[in-house]
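It is worth pausing here to work through a concrete case rather than discussing structure prediction in the abstract. The textbook approach is simple: state the sequence, then state the predicted structure, then interpret. We follow exactly that order.
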Amino acid sequence: MVNINDKEPKKRTPTQNNALHLFFEQASDALRNEGLDMRKVLKPGIDIPWTGPMFKEFIWLPIMIAVTGKEHTSDLTTKEIDKILIILDKHFGERFGLTVPFPCIDELIRNYEKENNR
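Step two, the predicted structure:
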């Protein structure tokens, strides 16, 4: 039974989408800077440095699918993003002593200006 007072969960905004993808880049940078290549975080083998798209594919998406059942980041609500971030923060903090804060609006503006040579 659906309660008419229940609000539909909010989809993320374009700004939140930009922040999410900036987070992927910052998280991959943090892992790389700590010397935590994919081999050390995921599997032994060849030293493969992290990139934002790789972080999304190999870390974010498996957690996202397990937690939400959704297969696309574009389908996430803001609360679902928060749940995933809490899981990641706990995991990286406990396993590697690493914290990557989610980007704030100031970081998004700086990133935009950097990309557009402003």
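Step three, interpretation. The mean pLDDT is 84. Residues 14-33 form the longest helix (20 residues).
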